[in-house]
From TrEMBL:
This is DNA polymerase III subunit delta. Residues 23-139 form the DNA polymerase III delta N-terminal domain. GO terms for molecular function: DNA binding; DNA-directed DNA polymerase activity. Belongs to the DNA polymerase HolA subunit family. Keywords: DNA replication, DNA-directed DNA polymerase, Nucleotidyltransferase, Transferase. It comes from the Bacteria. Gene3D superfamilies: 1.10.8.60, 1.20.272.10, P-loop containing nucleotide triphosphate hydrolases. InterPro entries: DNA_pol3_clamp-load_cplx_C, DNA_pol3_delta_N, DNA_polIII_delta, P-loop_NTPase.
Length: 335
């Protein structure tokens, strides 16, 4: 069983000798980054001062890993070897190389393997089990929504801030499950407010970003039937360089959820689509005002926009997105 990041950090605090191999993977970038940074710092404090990084891609030569294990530092220093493997798929050659390394890790080196999401098969693969047997496997699962308030409060308090309940809930609502956004809010609060009490007004200021709109702002304007505002936000997003795939993703997510709600699905689908409380009321009200076939027709339009973005000849992705926003706003405005 993989360790949680919290258990891993506690291990580092109390353990003198570091395990020779560590795999840190998962689906929560902030937790992955902090666990990896903690391991690197623990390695540095233990005298592993030389660092060698390997970036794994489809052309990576896995012989380099075991060559590094067999070689000595030119300065005689102990080394931290870091294997960055974002897709978590070493292939047969990589799996064998990792297993060989783990069977007899060198005394003068530590190996840190980092990866993004690993599916169940990967988490139970031979190379992962070899790392677990030789060292430690840490997996950073997404934080459950019902744990978010507690996590935000602890994060603020660890930074020397004393938030009231309203401030915590405001940050939870605005962050919408994005731990990196919470981390940025904490940094801004420290900069703007210093350590000490934090109320909702302070929290709102730390989260404010009035110069920009988000893709959710665009979706909300369209769902409100406010076509001029929706077109204005779309133009600003395009001017700011927001990717067309991201804009389409947000619109398609809401349209897909609306189609399911209109067909009688319960509110659980909002959680599945990561549509948070702040937006759920608008989406439910709009979805149930229109027949299901209206939303299915809009979903087909989303597919057409996707094709345009991918470069289907004769299509214009900018015009296709604008037309989709118009159709969504008009559908939402019909009572």
């Amino acid at each position: 069983m993989p360790e949680t990041p919290e258990a891993f950090l506690r291990r580092l605090e109390r353990q003198q000798a570091l395990p020779p191999v560590c795999l840190i993977a998962g689906e929560e970038p902030l937790l992955q980054r902090e666990a990896s940074d903690a391991w690197r710092e623990a390695a540095r404090q233990s005298g592993f001062s030389e660092r060698e990084v390997f970036d794994v891609d489809s052309n990576f030569d896995w012989g380099r890993l075991n060559e590094a294990a067999a070689s000595m530092s030119i300065f005689g220093d102990r080394r931290l070897l870091e294997l960055r493997m974002p897709n978590g798929k070493p292939g047969n050659a990589g799996s064998r190389a990792i297993q060989v390394y783990c069977s007899d890790p060198p005394d003068d080196a530590l190996l840190l393997v980092t990866s993004n999401r690993l599916d169940k098969g990967a988490r139970e693969s031979a190379w992962v089990k070899a790392i677990e047997q030789a060292g430690v496997f840490v997996y950073c699962w997404p934080l459950p929504l019902d744990k978010m308030s507690q996590w935000v409060r602890q994060r603020l308090e660890r930074a020397g801030l004393k938030p009231d309940s309203e401030a915590v809930e405001l940050i939870v609502e605005r962050a919408e499950g994005n731990l990196l956004a919470v981390d940025q809010a904490v940094e801004r609060l420290l900069l703007l407010n210093g350590k000490g009490p934090v109320g909702a007004d302070n929290a709102a200021l730390s989260l404010a970003d009035s110069a920009r709109y988000s893709v959710d702002d665009l979706a909300d304007a369209a769902l409100n039937g406010d076509l001029p505002r929706a077109h204005r936000i779309l133009e600003i997003l395009e001017q700011e360089g927001t990717g067309q795939p991201l804009i389409l993703w947000a619109l398609a997510r809401d349209i897909r959820a609306a189609a399911r709600l209109s067909a009688g699905a319960d509110d659980k689908i909002l959680y599945q689509e990561k549509i948070f409380k702040r937006r759920s009321g608008l989406l439910k009200a709009t979805a149930r005002r229109q027949p299901t076939h209206t939303w299915h027709r809009l979903l087909r339009r989303c597919h057409e926009v996707d094709c345009a973005i991918k470069g289907v000849p004769g299509s214009n992705p900018q015009e296709a997105l604008r037309a989709l926003v118009s159709r969504l706003a008009r559908a939402a405005s019909r009572r």
